[in-house]
């Protein structure tokens, strides 16, 4: 019986192709919009997750709270403080430094350009690996000896010196009022996709380079914050709680006097915002499904009117009220399901092509597609109930008289 109803439904749809397509259009747009928006949202969430993994999921920054009014000199961190933290927490800390950075102009011959310098310790390569193209990375001697050596990003070296292999070349720059000459000991490259490069602010006219963080611990080797990477697999909430308690005790403060920012917390916040935004916009797009459902109900009412005589003949030949109702419900469900299938194909094609054009990995969850098509069929059945009921209740004598 179901197969027969489906065959009849497809025959009716084929007999009025343009009308059927226009009827499905609302469903096509609704399903396509919902899948596209949800897929874009999931893709963006995945990209942000990869971005945080790239910068270090166990990364954390600790500083004296901006809300503390009676800030003392002893509240700032020192190199000895970092050594104490490393000694107490041992293998739980994979890396720690002063989180020092500075942006300033550099001069090489007649070329002058802006550079962002990041002060790092020599093990930084272990937690944030880069590919060394020429020369070497910073070593322990550079850091302990506060040597004026830098490792420069490939494109930055090319812009400043006119060549990628800038090992041995020097430039002048000023830190905290002191102008000195610095030597390039290595040139690196970090692989990033377009999204990571955009979010991390690489490119443009500003150069990038690493230098020993001990050079930037000014004044008097005091610094406002420290940056650390916990060992992989560390329970970050428990670790941060113990670390903040230790630092507060070391500084003679309360734990709440210090501010802590972790990549895990930031990633959770961003993921939550992106998920809520995707759901909200997807919900708005789903309204078009209701419009499509109304369109199906309207065209099914027209179809019932046009096929009144057919309904009368079927009932005169013994068709039950339930049979007629199922026939029209099947037709409305197929209309909606076909529209949903076309919408799925359209959405997947657009999202896939867009992702390929931008060089980004696209996330399309099969569950979302299955839910969308199922929902479209339910919409078709729901909005087809009234027309189907009207057709089923038609009096066969009156229907046979209808012209």
Using the CA coordinates, give the radius of gyration: 33 Å
The neighbouring-strand order within the major sheet is 4-5-10-7-9-8
Beta-strand percent range: 15-25%
Number of helices: 13
What is the rounded distance between the termini?
28 Å
Give me the count of strands.
13
Helix content: 55-70%
How would you sum up this structure, described in words?
With 403 residues, the chain is of the alpha+beta class. The protein has helices spanning 2-15, 17-55, 79-89, 124-127, 140-144, 154-161, 194-199, 236-251, 263-306, 308-316, 321-358, 366-392, 396-401; strands spanning 59-64, 77-78, 93-97, 101-108, 111-120, 131-135, 149-153, 170-175, 178-189, 207-212, 222-223, 225-230, 258-262. The strands form 3 sheets. The chain has a 6-stranded mixed barrel. It has a 4-stranded antiparallel beta sheet with strand order 3-12-1-13.
């Amino acid at each position: 019986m179901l197969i027969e109803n489906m065959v009849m439904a497809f025959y009716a749809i084929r007999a009025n192709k343009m009308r059927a397509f226009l009827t499905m259009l609302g469903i096509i747009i609704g399903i396509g919009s919902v899948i596209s928006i949800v897929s874009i949202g999931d893709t963006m969430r995945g990209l942000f997750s990869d971005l945080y993994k790239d910068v270090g999921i166990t990364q954390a920054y600790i500083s004296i709270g901006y809300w503390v009014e009676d800030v003392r000199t002893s509240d700032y961190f020192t190199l000895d403080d970092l050594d104490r933290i490393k000694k107490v927490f041992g293998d739980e800390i994979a890396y720690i430094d002063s989180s020092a950075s500075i942006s300033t102009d550099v001069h090489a011959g007649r070329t002058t350009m802006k550079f962002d310098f990041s002060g790092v310790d020599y093990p930084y390569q272990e937690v944030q690996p880069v590919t060394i193209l020429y020369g070497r990375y910073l070593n322990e001697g550079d850091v302990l000896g506060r040597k004026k050596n830098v490792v420069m990003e490939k494109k930055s070296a090319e812009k400043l010196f006119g060549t990628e292999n800038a090992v041995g070349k020097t430039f002048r720059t000023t830190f905290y009022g002191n102008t000195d000459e610095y030597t390039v000991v290595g040139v690196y490259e970090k692989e990033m996709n377009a999204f990571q490069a955009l979010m991390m602010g690489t490119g443009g006219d500003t150069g990038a380079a690493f230098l020993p963080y001990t050079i930037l611990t000014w004044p008097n080797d005091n610094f406002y914050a420290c940056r650390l990477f916990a060992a992989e697999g560390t329970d970050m909430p428990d670790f941060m709680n113990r670390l903040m308690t230790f630092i507060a005790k070391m500084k003679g403060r309360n734990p709440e006097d210090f501010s802590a920012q972790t990549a895990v917390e930031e990633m959770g916040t961003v993921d939550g915002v992106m998920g809520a935004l995707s759901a909200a916009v997807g919900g708005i797009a789903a309204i078009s499904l209701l419009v499509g459902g109304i369109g199906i109900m309207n065209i099914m009412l027209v179809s019932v009117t046009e096929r009144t005589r057919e309904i009368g003949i079927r009932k005169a030949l013994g068709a039950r009220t339930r049979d007629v109702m199922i026939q029209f419900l099947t037709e409305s469900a197929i209309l909606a399901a076909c529209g949903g299938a076309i919408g799925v194909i359209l959405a997947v094609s657009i999202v896939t092509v867009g992702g390929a054009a931008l060089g980004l990995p696209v996330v399309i969850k099969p569950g979302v597609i299955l839910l969308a098509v199922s929902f479209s069929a339910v919409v078709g059945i729901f909005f087809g109930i009234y027309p189907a009921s009207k057709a089923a209740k038609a009096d066969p004598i009156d229907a046979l008289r209808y012209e």
